[in-house]
Amino acid sequence: MKPTQATNIILLLTSLRVFPVFLLNLHHHFYLRLGPTSKIGFYVVSAAAACHVDDETGLLGFKSGIRADPSGMLASWKKGTDCCKWSGVTCLTGDRVTALSLAGQPNNLTTSLTGTISPSLSKLNYLDGLYLQDLKYLGGPFPDSLFTLPKLLFVYIENNKLSGPIPTNIANLVQLEALSLQGNQFSGPIPSSIAELTQLTQLKLGGNLLTGTIPLGIQRLRNLTLLHLERNQLSGPIPDLFSGLSNLRSITLSNNNFTGTIPGSISSLAPKLAYLELGHNSLTGKIPDFLGKFHALDTLDLSWNHFSGTVPKSFANLTKIFNLDLSHNKLVDPFPELHVRAKCGIKMKLDEWKPAETYFYDYIDLSENQITGSPVKLLNRTDYLVGFYASGNKLKFNLESMRFVKSLKHLDLSRNLVYGKVPKAISGLSELNVSYNHLCGQLPLTKFPASAFAGNDCLCGSPLPQCKA
After folding, report:
1. Domain range for residue 433?
2. Which of 84, 334, 351, 362 is the most exposed place for a label (fewest CB within 10 A)?
Protein backbone atom coordinates (compact mmCIF):
# COMPACT_ATOMS: atom_id res chain seq x y z
CA MET A 1 0.00 0.00 0.00
CA LYS A 2 1.48 3.36 -1.03
CA PRO A 3 0.88 6.56 0.96
CA THR A 4 -0.99 9.39 -0.72
CA GLN A 5 0.16 12.97 -0.60
CA ALA A 6 -2.19 13.67 2.29
CA THR A 7 -1.53 10.60 4.39
CA ASN A 8 1.55 9.04 5.95
CA ILE A 9 1.60 5.31 6.65
CA ILE A 10 3.29 4.78 10.00
CA LEU A 11 4.48 1.32 10.95
CA LEU A 12 5.49 1.03 14.58
CA LEU A 13 7.02 -2.31 15.50
CA THR A 14 8.06 -2.38 19.11
CA SER A 15 9.50 -5.62 20.35
CA LEU A 16 11.03 -7.10 23.46
CA ARG A 17 13.06 -4.99 25.81
CA VAL A 18 16.21 -6.64 24.55
CA PHE A 19 18.72 -4.68 22.47
CA PRO A 20 16.22 -2.15 21.08
CA VAL A 21 17.25 -0.63 17.78
CA PHE A 22 15.91 2.57 16.32
CA LEU A 23 15.64 2.97 12.58
CA LEU A 24 14.20 6.25 11.45
CA ASN A 25 13.57 6.82 7.75
CA LEU A 26 14.60 10.36 6.94
CA HIS A 27 11.72 10.77 4.51
CA HIS A 28 8.35 11.77 5.83
CA HIS A 29 6.29 8.96 4.33
CA PHE A 30 7.52 5.92 6.23
CA TYR A 31 8.63 5.53 9.83
CA LEU A 32 9.91 2.32 11.40
CA ARG A 33 10.90 2.14 15.03
CA LEU A 34 12.02 -0.97 16.87
CA GLY A 35 11.99 0.21 20.44
CA PRO A 36 12.05 -0.93 24.05
CA THR A 37 8.34 -1.47 24.49
CA SER A 38 6.17 -4.51 24.12
CA LYS A 39 3.38 -3.75 21.64
CA ILE A 40 2.92 -4.02 17.90
CA GLY A 41 0.68 -1.58 16.12
CA PHE A 42 -0.13 0.19 12.90
CA TYR A 43 -1.10 3.84 12.75
CA VAL A 44 -2.36 6.09 9.97
CA VAL A 45 -1.57 9.74 10.60
CA SER A 46 -2.84 12.71 8.67
CA ALA A 47 -0.16 14.84 7.07
CA ALA A 48 -2.42 17.45 5.53
CA ALA A 49 -1.60 20.19 8.04
CA ALA A 50 1.74 21.98 8.20
CA CYS A 51 3.83 21.49 11.31
CA HIS A 52 3.25 23.50 14.45
CA VAL A 53 4.82 26.96 14.48
CA ASP A 54 6.74 26.21 17.70
CA ASP A 55 8.33 23.15 16.10
CA GLU A 56 9.28 25.10 12.99
CA THR A 57 10.85 27.81 15.14
CA GLY A 58 12.69 25.25 17.27
CA LEU A 59 14.11 23.39 14.29
CA LEU A 60 15.17 26.55 12.46
CA GLY A 61 16.87 27.61 15.68
CA PHE A 62 18.75 24.31 15.66
CA LYS A 63 19.79 24.93 12.07
CA SER A 64 21.06 28.40 12.98
CA GLY A 65 23.48 26.78 15.43
CA ILE A 66 25.06 24.76 12.62
CA ARG A 67 28.02 26.56 10.98
CA ALA A 68 28.84 23.92 8.36
CA ASP A 69 26.71 21.30 6.60
CA PRO A 70 28.87 20.01 3.71
CA SER A 71 26.48 17.28 2.59
CA GLY A 72 23.35 19.46 2.70
CA MET A 73 21.77 17.40 5.44
CA LEU A 74 19.58 20.36 6.42
CA ALA A 75 18.98 21.69 2.90
CA SER A 76 15.26 20.95 3.04
CA TRP A 77 14.81 22.94 6.26
CA LYS A 78 13.27 26.11 4.84
CA LYS A 79 11.06 28.61 6.63
CA GLY A 80 7.44 28.50 5.51
CA THR A 81 7.50 24.87 4.37
CA ASP A 82 6.04 21.94 6.28
CA CYS A 83 8.74 20.95 8.78
CA CYS A 84 7.15 17.49 9.13
CA LYS A 85 8.52 16.86 5.63
CA TRP A 86 12.05 18.05 6.37
CA SER A 87 14.87 15.56 6.22
CA GLY A 88 15.34 13.81 9.56
CA VAL A 89 12.04 15.04 11.02
CA THR A 90 9.13 12.79 11.97
CA CYS A 91 5.64 13.83 13.07
CA LEU A 92 3.51 11.10 14.63
CA THR A 93 1.12 13.33 16.58
CA GLY A 94 -0.78 15.45 14.12
CA ASP A 95 1.31 18.48 13.27
CA ARG A 96 3.82 17.99 16.13
CA VAL A 97 7.41 16.84 15.70
CA THR A 98 8.00 13.61 17.62
CA ALA A 99 11.49 12.59 16.46
CA LEU A 100 14.61 14.25 15.12
CA SER A 101 17.13 11.92 13.50
CA LEU A 102 20.29 13.23 11.84
CA ALA A 103 23.03 10.71 11.09
CA GLY A 104 26.30 10.88 9.22
CA GLN A 105 28.26 8.03 7.73
CA PRO A 106 31.05 6.88 10.07
CA ASN A 107 33.79 6.87 7.40
CA ASN A 108 32.64 9.87 5.41
CA LEU A 109 33.77 13.23 6.74
CA THR A 110 31.48 15.16 4.41
CA THR A 111 28.39 13.73 6.16
CA SER A 112 28.93 15.88 9.22
CA LEU A 113 27.62 18.93 10.98
CA THR A 114 29.77 21.62 12.59
CA GLY A 115 28.24 23.67 15.36
CA THR A 116 26.37 23.27 18.64
CA ILE A 117 22.95 22.05 19.73
CA SER A 118 20.74 25.13 19.96
CA PRO A 119 18.62 25.63 23.10
CA SER A 120 15.70 26.24 20.75
CA LEU A 121 15.08 22.47 20.78
CA SER A 122 13.19 23.16 24.00
CA LYS A 123 10.26 24.26 21.81
CA LEU A 124 9.74 20.70 20.52
CA ASN A 125 7.36 19.76 23.32
CA TYR A 126 6.22 16.52 21.69
CA LEU A 127 9.71 15.20 20.93
CA ASP A 128 10.14 11.63 22.17
CA GLY A 129 13.29 10.65 20.25
CA LEU A 130 16.50 12.59 19.58
CA TYR A 131 19.09 10.84 17.41
CA LEU A 132 22.21 12.88 16.52
CA GLN A 133 24.70 10.24 15.42
CA ASP A 134 28.06 10.26 13.65
CA LEU A 135 27.93 13.97 12.93
CA LYS A 136 31.61 14.25 13.95
CA TYR A 137 31.95 17.99 14.59
CA LEU A 138 28.80 18.69 16.56
CA GLY A 139 30.16 20.12 19.81
CA GLY A 140 29.34 22.09 22.91
CA PRO A 141 28.09 20.91 26.30
CA PHE A 142 25.27 18.52 27.07
CA PRO A 143 22.13 20.35 25.82
CA ASP A 144 20.19 21.69 28.80
CA SER A 145 17.23 22.24 26.49
CA LEU A 146 16.42 18.54 26.80
CA PHE A 147 15.45 18.94 30.44
CA THR A 148 12.27 20.81 29.50
CA LEU A 149 10.96 18.17 27.07
CA PRO A 150 8.25 16.24 28.91
CA LYS A 151 7.83 13.39 26.42
CA LEU A 152 11.48 12.62 25.66
CA LEU A 153 12.17 8.86 25.88
CA PHE A 154 15.20 8.13 23.69
CA VAL A 155 18.43 10.15 23.48
CA TYR A 156 21.20 8.96 21.17
CA ILE A 157 23.88 11.66 20.86
CA GLU A 158 26.70 9.48 19.57
CA ASN A 159 30.10 9.93 17.92
CA ASN A 160 30.21 13.69 17.96
CA LYS A 161 32.39 16.17 19.88
CA LEU A 162 30.23 17.18 22.81
CA SER A 163 32.32 17.87 25.89
CA GLY A 164 32.24 18.98 29.50
CA PRO A 165 30.57 17.13 32.37
CA ILE A 166 27.42 15.06 32.23
CA PRO A 167 25.20 17.39 34.28
CA THR A 168 23.91 16.24 37.66
CA ASN A 169 20.40 17.35 36.73
CA ILE A 170 20.33 14.51 34.21
CA ALA A 171 18.05 13.09 36.90
CA ASN A 172 15.30 15.39 35.62
CA LEU A 173 14.88 13.12 32.59
CA VAL A 174 13.16 10.50 34.73
CA GLN A 175 11.09 9.23 31.81
CA LEU A 176 14.11 8.29 29.65
CA GLU A 177 14.20 4.70 28.38
CA ALA A 178 17.52 4.94 26.52
CA LEU A 179 20.51 7.24 26.98
CA SER A 180 23.56 6.95 24.74
CA LEU A 181 26.32 9.56 24.79
CA GLN A 182 29.03 7.24 23.50
CA GLY A 183 31.86 8.47 21.32
CA ASN A 184 32.03 12.08 22.54
CA GLN A 185 34.44 13.95 24.83
CA PHE A 186 32.46 14.13 28.05
CA SER A 187 34.70 14.33 31.10
CA GLY A 188 34.44 14.17 34.87
CA PRO A 189 32.55 11.55 36.88
CA ILE A 190 29.39 9.69 36.01
CA PRO A 191 26.89 11.65 38.13
CA SER A 192 25.36 9.62 40.95
CA SER A 193 22.02 11.19 40.05
CA ILE A 194 21.89 8.93 36.99
CA ALA A 195 20.42 6.39 39.41
CA GLU A 196 17.15 8.34 39.21
CA LEU A 197 16.62 7.26 35.59
CA THR A 198 14.91 4.05 36.66
CA GLN A 199 13.15 3.52 33.32
CA LEU A 200 16.42 3.14 31.40
CA THR A 201 16.88 0.01 29.31
CA GLN A 202 20.14 1.24 27.76
CA LEU A 203 22.97 3.25 29.30
CA LYS A 204 25.85 3.76 26.88
CA LEU A 205 28.60 6.17 27.90
CA GLY A 206 31.57 4.48 26.22
CA GLY A 207 34.29 6.27 24.31
CA ASN A 208 34.48 9.44 26.40
CA LEU A 209 36.92 10.86 28.98
CA LEU A 210 34.97 9.94 32.10
CA THR A 211 36.83 9.46 35.37
CA GLY A 212 36.09 8.22 38.86
CA THR A 213 34.16 5.14 39.89
CA ILE A 214 30.91 3.51 38.79
CA PRO A 215 28.09 4.94 40.93
CA LEU A 216 26.54 2.33 43.22
CA GLY A 217 23.13 3.75 42.41
CA ILE A 218 23.21 2.07 39.00
CA GLN A 219 21.90 -1.00 40.84
CA ARG A 220 18.53 0.80 40.89
CA LEU A 221 18.26 0.68 37.09
CA ARG A 222 16.51 -2.68 37.09
CA ASN A 223 15.29 -2.42 33.49
CA LEU A 224 18.81 -2.17 32.03
CA THR A 225 19.62 -4.52 29.16
CA LEU A 226 22.86 -2.78 28.14
CA LEU A 227 25.53 -1.18 30.34
CA HIS A 228 28.37 0.11 28.17
CA LEU A 229 31.09 2.20 29.85
CA GLU A 230 34.10 1.09 27.79
CA ARG A 231 36.99 3.29 26.59
CA ASN A 232 36.97 5.80 29.41
CA GLN A 233 39.30 6.50 32.34
CA LEU A 234 37.15 4.95 35.05
CA SER A 235 38.94 3.42 38.02
CA GLY A 236 38.51 1.60 41.31
CA PRO A 237 36.89 -1.79 41.76
CA ILE A 238 33.89 -2.89 39.72
CA PRO A 239 31.05 -2.46 42.25
CA ASP A 240 29.14 -5.53 43.43
CA LEU A 241 25.83 -4.16 42.17
CA PHE A 242 24.56 -6.66 39.60
CA SER A 243 22.29 -8.90 41.66
CA GLY A 244 19.19 -6.83 40.91
CA LEU A 245 19.93 -6.19 37.23
CA SER A 246 18.45 -9.44 35.95
CA ASN A 247 17.62 -8.03 32.49
CA LEU A 248 21.23 -7.28 31.54
CA ARG A 249 22.34 -8.82 28.26
CA SER A 250 25.52 -6.85 27.64
CA ILE A 251 28.18 -5.45 29.99
CA THR A 252 31.13 -3.66 28.40
CA LEU A 253 33.68 -2.15 30.80
CA SER A 254 36.84 -2.73 28.75
CA ASN A 255 39.66 -0.20 28.27
CA ASN A 256 39.44 1.51 31.64
CA ASN A 257 41.55 1.41 34.82
CA PHE A 258 39.46 -0.95 36.94
CA THR A 259 41.22 -2.90 39.67
CA GLY A 260 40.30 -5.74 42.03
CA THR A 261 38.39 -8.90 41.20
CA ILE A 262 35.30 -9.75 39.20
CA PRO A 263 32.39 -9.11 41.60
CA GLY A 264 30.41 -12.13 42.71
CA SER A 265 27.03 -10.54 41.96
CA ILE A 266 27.74 -10.94 38.23
CA SER A 267 26.99 -14.63 38.77
CA SER A 268 23.28 -13.76 39.07
CA LEU A 269 23.27 -12.77 35.38
CA ALA A 270 24.16 -16.26 34.15
CA PRO A 271 20.80 -17.15 32.52
CA LYS A 272 20.70 -14.23 30.05
CA LEU A 273 24.03 -12.39 29.77
CA ALA A 274 25.41 -12.62 26.21
CA TYR A 275 28.34 -10.17 26.27
CA LEU A 276 30.84 -9.61 29.09
CA GLU A 277 33.82 -7.48 28.08
CA LEU A 278 36.31 -6.58 30.83
CA GLY A 279 39.53 -6.53 28.77
CA HIS A 280 42.31 -3.95 29.05
CA ASN A 281 41.99 -3.17 32.75
CA SER A 282 44.05 -4.11 35.84
CA LEU A 283 41.81 -6.82 37.29
CA THR A 284 43.44 -9.48 39.46
CA GLY A 285 42.75 -12.80 41.13
CA LYS A 286 41.52 -16.03 39.64
CA ILE A 287 38.92 -16.24 36.92
CA PRO A 288 35.72 -17.12 38.83
CA ASP A 289 34.33 -20.60 38.39
CA PHE A 290 30.80 -19.21 38.07
CA LEU A 291 31.54 -17.85 34.59
CA GLY A 292 31.24 -21.42 33.37
CA LYS A 293 27.51 -21.24 34.11
CA PHE A 294 26.90 -18.48 31.54
CA HIS A 295 25.37 -20.78 28.94
CA ALA A 296 24.04 -17.87 26.83
CA LEU A 297 27.45 -16.19 26.62
CA ASP A 298 28.52 -15.17 23.12
CA THR A 299 31.55 -13.04 23.99
CA LEU A 300 33.87 -13.15 27.00
CA ASP A 301 36.87 -10.83 26.94
CA LEU A 302 39.17 -10.86 29.98
CA SER A 303 42.34 -10.03 28.02
CA TRP A 304 45.10 -7.64 29.12
CA ASN A 305 44.51 -7.94 32.86
CA HIS A 306 46.43 -9.64 35.69
CA PHE A 307 44.36 -12.78 36.15
CA SER A 308 46.39 -15.70 37.48
CA GLY A 309 46.04 -19.42 38.11
CA THR A 310 44.21 -21.84 35.88
CA VAL A 311 41.10 -21.39 33.78
CA PRO A 312 38.11 -23.02 35.54
CA LYS A 313 37.14 -26.48 34.32
CA SER A 314 33.56 -25.18 34.20
CA PHE A 315 34.49 -23.35 30.96
CA ALA A 316 33.79 -26.67 29.25
CA ASN A 317 30.11 -25.68 29.59
CA LEU A 318 30.49 -22.55 27.41
CA THR A 319 29.20 -24.31 24.32
CA LYS A 320 27.75 -21.15 22.73
CA ILE A 321 30.84 -18.98 23.08
CA PHE A 322 31.87 -17.28 19.81
CA ASN A 323 34.60 -14.97 21.08
CA LEU A 324 36.76 -15.94 24.05
CA ASP A 325 39.86 -13.85 24.71
CA LEU A 326 41.95 -14.58 27.79
CA SER A 327 45.26 -13.42 26.32
CA HIS A 328 47.81 -11.22 28.08
CA ASN A 329 47.25 -12.48 31.61
CA LYS A 330 49.25 -14.72 33.97
CA LEU A 331 47.33 -17.92 33.40
CA VAL A 332 49.00 -21.33 33.65
CA ASP A 333 48.38 -24.96 32.65
CA PRO A 334 46.26 -26.94 32.42
CA PHE A 335 43.61 -25.40 30.19
CA PRO A 336 40.28 -27.25 30.29
CA GLU A 337 39.00 -29.16 27.31
CA LEU A 338 36.35 -27.06 25.61
CA HIS A 339 33.37 -28.29 23.62
CA VAL A 340 32.74 -25.21 21.54
CA ARG A 341 30.60 -25.48 18.42
CA ALA A 342 30.94 -21.99 17.10
CA LYS A 343 29.70 -20.82 13.74
CA CYS A 344 32.19 -17.96 13.30
CA GLY A 345 35.73 -16.90 14.12
CA ILE A 346 37.06 -17.41 17.62
CA LYS A 347 40.05 -16.17 19.60
CA MET A 348 41.18 -18.39 22.46
CA LYS A 349 44.02 -18.79 24.89
CA LEU A 350 44.59 -22.49 25.61
CA ASP A 351 47.11 -25.29 25.74
CA GLU A 352 45.57 -28.61 24.84
CA TRP A 353 42.37 -27.75 23.06
CA LYS A 354 40.30 -30.51 21.50
CA PRO A 355 37.31 -28.78 19.97
CA ALA A 356 34.61 -30.85 18.29
CA GLU A 357 34.74 -28.59 15.22
CA THR A 358 37.48 -26.30 13.88
CA TYR A 359 36.17 -25.69 10.38
CA PHE A 360 35.05 -22.09 10.96
CA TYR A 361 37.83 -20.90 13.26
CA ASP A 362 39.80 -18.07 11.72
CA TYR A 363 41.66 -16.39 14.61
CA ILE A 364 43.36 -17.94 17.63
CA ASP A 365 45.18 -15.77 20.18
CA LEU A 366 47.34 -17.31 22.92
CA SER A 367 49.62 -14.33 23.45
CA GLU A 368 51.64 -13.56 26.59
CA ASN A 369 50.94 -16.51 28.84
CA GLN A 370 52.78 -19.61 30.02
CA ILE A 371 51.47 -22.14 27.55
CA THR A 372 53.61 -25.15 26.80
CA GLY A 373 53.52 -27.99 24.27
CA SER A 374 52.82 -27.95 20.56
CA PRO A 375 49.91 -26.35 18.70
CA VAL A 376 50.57 -28.38 15.53
CA LYS A 377 47.68 -30.84 15.92
CA LEU A 378 45.25 -28.00 16.41
CA LEU A 379 46.61 -25.81 13.62
CA ASN A 380 46.72 -28.66 11.15
CA ARG A 381 42.96 -29.15 11.64
CA THR A 382 42.07 -25.55 10.78
CA ASP A 383 41.36 -25.23 7.06
CA TYR A 384 40.48 -21.54 7.11
CA LEU A 385 42.79 -20.11 9.75
CA VAL A 386 43.62 -16.44 9.08
CA GLY A 387 45.63 -15.46 12.14
CA PHE A 388 47.54 -17.33 14.84
CA TYR A 389 49.05 -15.23 17.65
CA ALA A 390 51.10 -16.99 20.32
CA SER A 391 53.96 -14.66 21.28
CA GLY A 392 55.51 -14.83 24.73
CA ASN A 393 54.77 -18.43 25.64
CA LYS A 394 56.74 -21.69 25.88
CA LEU A 395 55.50 -23.42 22.78
CA LYS A 396 57.96 -26.03 21.52
CA PHE A 397 57.58 -27.61 18.09
CA ASN A 398 59.25 -27.96 14.71
CA LEU A 399 58.04 -25.12 12.48
CA GLU A 400 58.38 -27.37 9.42
CA SER A 401 55.70 -29.68 10.85
CA MET A 402 53.07 -26.96 10.71
CA ARG A 403 50.67 -26.90 7.75
CA PHE A 404 50.35 -23.43 6.21
CA VAL A 405 46.81 -23.19 4.81
CA LYS A 406 46.18 -20.73 1.98
CA SER A 407 44.00 -18.52 4.18
CA LEU A 408 46.74 -17.99 6.81
CA LYS A 409 47.93 -14.37 6.65
CA HIS A 410 49.13 -13.50 10.17
CA LEU A 411 51.54 -15.61 12.22
CA ASP A 412 53.26 -14.48 15.43
CA LEU A 413 55.34 -17.12 17.23
CA SER A 414 57.89 -14.72 18.70
CA ARG A 415 59.54 -15.44 22.07
CA ASN A 416 58.85 -19.17 22.24
CA LEU A 417 60.90 -22.36 21.86
CA VAL A 418 60.16 -23.06 18.19
CA TYR A 419 62.92 -24.92 16.33
CA GLY A 420 63.74 -26.26 12.86
CA LYS A 421 64.00 -24.39 9.57
CA VAL A 422 61.80 -21.60 8.26
CA PRO A 423 59.67 -23.18 5.48
CA LYS A 424 59.09 -21.62 2.06
CA ALA A 425 55.37 -21.49 2.84
CA ILE A 426 55.89 -18.24 4.78
CA SER A 427 55.90 -16.44 1.42
CA GLY A 428 52.08 -16.56 1.44
CA LEU A 429 51.82 -14.60 4.69
CA SER A 430 51.25 -10.86 4.97
CA GLU A 431 52.53 -10.63 8.57
CA LEU A 432 55.21 -12.80 10.26
CA ASN A 433 57.19 -12.69 13.49
CA VAL A 434 59.28 -15.72 14.53
CA SER A 435 61.92 -13.74 16.41
CA TYR A 436 63.61 -15.06 19.56
CA ASN A 437 63.18 -18.78 19.06
CA HIS A 438 65.62 -21.59 18.18
CA LEU A 439 65.26 -21.61 14.41
CA CYS A 440 68.25 -22.40 12.24
CA GLY A 441 69.28 -22.61 8.58
CA GLN A 442 69.02 -20.50 5.44
CA LEU A 443 65.95 -18.34 5.02
CA PRO A 444 63.79 -18.70 1.91
CA LEU A 445 63.17 -15.67 -0.26
CA THR A 446 61.14 -13.33 1.94
CA LYS A 447 59.57 -9.89 1.98
CA PHE A 448 59.78 -9.59 5.78
CA PRO A 449 62.25 -7.36 7.67
CA ALA A 450 65.19 -8.64 9.67
CA SER A 451 63.29 -7.95 12.90
CA ALA A 452 60.90 -10.79 12.05
CA PHE A 453 63.78 -13.28 12.40
CA ALA A 454 66.00 -11.67 15.03
CA GLY A 455 67.23 -13.54 18.09
CA ASN A 456 67.28 -17.07 16.69
CA ASP A 457 70.12 -19.62 16.99
CA CYS A 458 71.55 -19.73 13.48
CA LEU A 459 69.29 -18.26 10.81
CA CYS A 460 71.04 -16.71 7.84
CA GLY A 461 70.36 -15.27 4.41
CA SER A 462 68.54 -12.11 3.34
CA PRO A 463 67.40 -10.01 5.18
CA LEU A 464 69.89 -11.42 7.76
CA PRO A 465 73.63 -11.76 7.10
CA GLN A 466 74.65 -14.21 4.41
CA CYS A 467 75.12 -17.86 5.29
CA LYS A 468 78.71 -19.03 5.76
CA ALA A 469 80.04 -21.48 3.21
Report:
1. 371-469
2. 334
